[in-house]
RNA sequence: UGCGGGAUAGGAUAAUGCAGUCCACGGGGCUCAUAUCCCCGAGGUCCAGGUUCGACUCCUGGUCCCGCAACCA
């Protein structure tokens, strides 16, 4: 089943996944917001009426827990992030027509309205579920804050998903031997009444829905597998007080699951947009109402495909709303070939990028044209430099500048002749490529259509050598430059969705007024104004030494983050792969297949060393941490006091034999929490095998190592 | 022994019937242009089978890589 190509005569809405109001934005997030923004802009250049809406995702356990940790109420906490996001988006030329949040009145009312409809239509039933409860902390433990044993495959699993074993989605109460992630306490199950949505009844509907769904293939294929395995009904409520109340249950300590109200923000935000600009300008009902048939396009990360292709369309159908036309799931971003990790600081933060002084359009171009939407894209500063210097500076910028400068010097603007038909056809071809790119949900094709047209421009000017023709054949020279100016303008129009600022700069240089964002693709063929001023350079080259610095800074910051927890929390995950099936491997092993890390070349000062407070200690208690494969909780006597630390040594050491052992402890390590257990120091150990360091003589407990 | 994604030239990235594009590399050219641009060249489908007139593409088996604990799209 295929939909009518864009543009259609119905309004469209484009959304990106809602930013979760719980932390700073990095380029992984930005990829989504930028892609959706570019897609929305591209739709508009095709002549499609379209709005780009989004909002902050305010609810859920992590927000509640982190707010509590900071001693503020969840709303204040989440709003702080919300404000920060709103400031950040424009700095990347991400322009929402409306940006709300899930806790605002519009979304609250709409969510309750939709849930009420689901209930009234008979799609909701009540059922008693066993909810994990931490008796020590007097705390009900929702989904993510429980871990235990998967009832299906027996693997260790998270409360909402068997992440290490069979990958199944787990409903509350399913997991066996639950423990609290927050305190490590064993949890008990208590019976609570919760609301369930009959998703299982929608299997046929969803199969048809997926058959007609546009976007990326992963967004169609993954949920199909889910449907084949059999859909489970979906628990709509959680034992919490932060969130939107289940309609009619306002008095109870139960709220809607965050994934119920989050996607509804797409509708609520569209509605707010209409309320602001008026229904004549943009009518949300024409998009979202069941029979209106507006074009709904969700651009999301690939980790939330299930929510957008199973629960969400089922909910929309049940509540009698229109369902999405397209779901495009972006791949992830890797940094220097490795997975992005916020905890290890392997990330490029939005703020950092801006502080380096790079123009947002450079990143927009890089992220949208380096790989297909669905592909994982690797970010390196070197690749970024190549892309910018090669394509934006060398191809596009250079073509713009050489054409316009030549035109300005010789004709004070656009030569007064008609564009040649060859060039017109070539531009039409590029317009066609953009149109096809949008309909394929390929921003890469959109961006590259502009670059290829500029490349054609370079070839064209090179072949015709107008600098020779000005004397020999002035008419022909004027023709060539006229063509080049037209190509330059066309490149600007085509590039606008990807690089709006830069396209606008070009637009103004050729003497156009107004905004290039309002231009349609066909305007690429309209003649530019007769005269314009002397052009300037629009893109700036990134120098090699700059890139070296950036790469170094990045490495240092990752190294700094991993040193923090190297021998405690993080390193055992690496040790894991190496020692998995090699139990006979505990003996020192320095044979050929073990690679030693090269020695650090950066020297540190004596003062730096003095900053490390390293003490002699004795392990007094050593016990495993439930649920962790390799983490042990140790109590270490360092003379002055006894410290609790967490160390990744369970797999390689016989914990029972450890008490009484001397060890070396980095005492002024900043505290960390691992598997809910506070670690207040770091036991030093050598290598992947976590060979514990000890003393050779009889140093007293608490003596400083120097 | 799980789940998902992937393997195309030195690197990256396309292709459902001629393996294309960008960077880097070798050679040449231009001077309007930001040492930018243009032309030419060399160089590639992970392995083993199978289907086919034809396989990067489909099938079978294998190898290798990546992501999948902790609030990381």
Question: Could you outline the blueprint of secondary structure elements for this entry?
Answer:
Layout: E1 12-16, H1 27-45, E2 50-56, H2 61-70, H3 74-91, E3 98-101, H4 105-120, E4 124-134, E5 139-140, E6 146-149, E7 156-158, E8 176-180, E9 188-197, H5 203-212, E10 214-215, H6 217-229, E11 234-235, E12 237-238, E13 255-256, H7 258-277, H8 284-288, E14 295-301, H9 305-318, E15 326-330, E16 333-335, E17 338-339, H10 350-355, H11 360-369, E18 377-379, H12 381-411, H13 421-439, H14 443-464, H15 466-472, H16 474-495, H17 500-509, H18 544-579, H19 606-610, E19 614-624, E20 632-637, E21 642-647, E22 662-666, E23 672-674, E24 677-679, E25 682-683, E26 685-686, E27 691-692
Helix pairs in contact: 2-3, 4-7, 5-6, 5-9, 6-9, 11-12, 12-14, 12-16, 13-14, 13-16, 14-16, 15-16, 16-17
The structure holds one RNA strand of 73 nucleotides.
Total number of beta strands: 27
CATH class of the domain at 381-525: Mainly Alpha
The low-confidence parts are: 565-598
N-to-C terminal Cα separation, in Å?
A: 73 Å
Shape designation:
flat
Number of separate helices: 19
Question: What's the story with the biggest beta sheet?
Answer: 6 strands, parallel
Beta-strand proportion: 15-25%
Order the strands across the largest sheet as they lie in space: 3-2-1-14-15-10
Arithmetic mean pLDDT = 84
Please tell me how large the radius of gyration is.
Answer: 30 Å
Estimate the helix proportion, in percent.
Answer: 40-55%
| Structural class determined from secondary elements | alpha+beta
- What is the CATH homologous superfamily assignment of the domain at 381-525? Isoleucyl-tRNA Synthetase, Domain 1
CATH fold title of the domain at 381-525: Isoleucyl-tRNA Synthetase, Domain 1
In the CATH hierarchy, the architecture of the domain at 381-525 is Orthogonal Bundle
């Amino acid at each position: 089943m295929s939909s009518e190509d864009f543009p259609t005569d119905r309004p469209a809405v484009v959304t990106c996944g809602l930013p979760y109001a719980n932390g700073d934005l990095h380029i992984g997030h930005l990829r989504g917001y930028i892609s959706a923004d570019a897609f929305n802009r591209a739709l508009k250049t095709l002549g499609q009426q379209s709005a780009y809406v989004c909002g902050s995702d305010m609810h859920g356990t992590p927000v509640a827990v982190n707010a509590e940790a900071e001693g503020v109420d969840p709303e204040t906490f989440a709003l702080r992030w919300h404000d920060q996001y709103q400031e950040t988006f424009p700095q990347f030329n991400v322009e929402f027509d409306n940006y709300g949040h899930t806790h605002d009145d519009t979304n609250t009312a709409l969510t309750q309205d939709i849930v009420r409809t689901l209930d009234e239509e008979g799609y909701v039933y009540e059922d008693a579920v066993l909810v994990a409860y931490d008796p020590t902390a007097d705390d009900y433990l929702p989904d993510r804050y429980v871990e235990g044993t998967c009832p299906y495959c027996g693997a260790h699993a998270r409360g909402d998903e068997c992440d290490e074993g069979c990958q199944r989605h787990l409903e509350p109460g399913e997991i066996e031997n639950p423990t609290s992630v927050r305190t490590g306490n064993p949890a008990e199950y208590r019976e609570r009444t919760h609301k369930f949505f009959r998703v299982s009844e929608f299997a046929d509907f969803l199969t048809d829905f997926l058959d007609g769904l546009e976007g990326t293939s992963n967004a169609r294929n993954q949920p199909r597998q889910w449907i084949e395995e059999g859909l489970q009904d979906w628990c709509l409520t959680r034992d919490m007080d932060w969130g939107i109340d289940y309609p009619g249950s306002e008095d109870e300590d139960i709220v809607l699951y965050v994934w119920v109200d989050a996607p509804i923000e797409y509708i609520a935000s569209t509605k707010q947009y209409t309320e602001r600009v008026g229904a004549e300008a943009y009518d949300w009902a024409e998009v979202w109402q069941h029979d209106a048939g507006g074009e709904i396009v969700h651009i999301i990360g690939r980790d939330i495909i299930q929510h957008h292709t199973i629960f969400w369309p089922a909910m929309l159908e049940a509540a009698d709303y229109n369902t999405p036309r397209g779901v495009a799931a972006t791949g992830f971003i890797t940094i220097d070939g490795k997975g992005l990790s916020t905890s290890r600081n392997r990330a490029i933060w939005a703020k950092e990028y801006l502080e380096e002084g790079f123009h947002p359009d450079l990143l927009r171009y890089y992220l949208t044209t380096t790989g297909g939407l669905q592909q994982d894209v690797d970010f390196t500063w070197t690749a970024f430099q190549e892309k910018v210097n090669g394509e934006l500076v060398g191809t596009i910028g250079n073509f713009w500048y050489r054409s316009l400068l030549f035109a300005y010097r010789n004709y004070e603007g656009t030569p007064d002749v008609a564009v040649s038909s060859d060039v017109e056809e070539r531009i039409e071809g590029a317009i066609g490529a953009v149109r096809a790119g949008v309909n394929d949900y390929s921003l890469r094709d959109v961006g590259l259509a502009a670059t290829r047209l500029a490349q054609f421009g370079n070839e064209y000017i090179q072949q015709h050598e107008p600098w020779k023709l000005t004397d020999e054949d002035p008419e022909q020279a004027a023709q060539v430059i006229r063509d080049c100016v037209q190509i330059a303008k066309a490149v600007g129009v085509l590039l606008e969705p990807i690089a709006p600022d830069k396209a606008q700069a070009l637009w103004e240089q050729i003497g156009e007024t107004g905004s290039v964002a309002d231009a349609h693709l066909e305007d690429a063929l309209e003649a530019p104004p007769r005269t314009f001023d002397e052009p300037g350079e629009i893109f700036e080259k990134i120098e090699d030494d700059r890139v070296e610095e950036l790469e170094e800074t990045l490495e240092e910051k990752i190294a700094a983050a991993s040193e923090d927890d190297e021998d405690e929390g993080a390193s055992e995950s690496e040790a894991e792969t190496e020692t998995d099936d090699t139990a006979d491997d505990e003996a020192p092993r320095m044979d050929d297949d073990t690679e030693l890390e090269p020695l650090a070349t950066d020297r540190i000062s004596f003062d730096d060393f003095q900053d490390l407070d390293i003490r002699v200690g004795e392990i007094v208690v050593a016990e495993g941490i439930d649920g962790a494969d390799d983490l042990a909780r140790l109590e270490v006597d360092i003379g002055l006091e006894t410290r609790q630390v967490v160390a990744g040594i369970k797999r390689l050491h016989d914990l029972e034999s450890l008490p009484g052992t001397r060890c070396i402890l980095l005492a002024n390590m900043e505290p960390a929490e691992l598997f809910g257990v506070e670690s207040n120091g770091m036991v030093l150990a050598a290598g992947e095998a976590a060979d514990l360091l000890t003393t050779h003589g009889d140093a007293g407990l608490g003596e400083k190592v120097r």
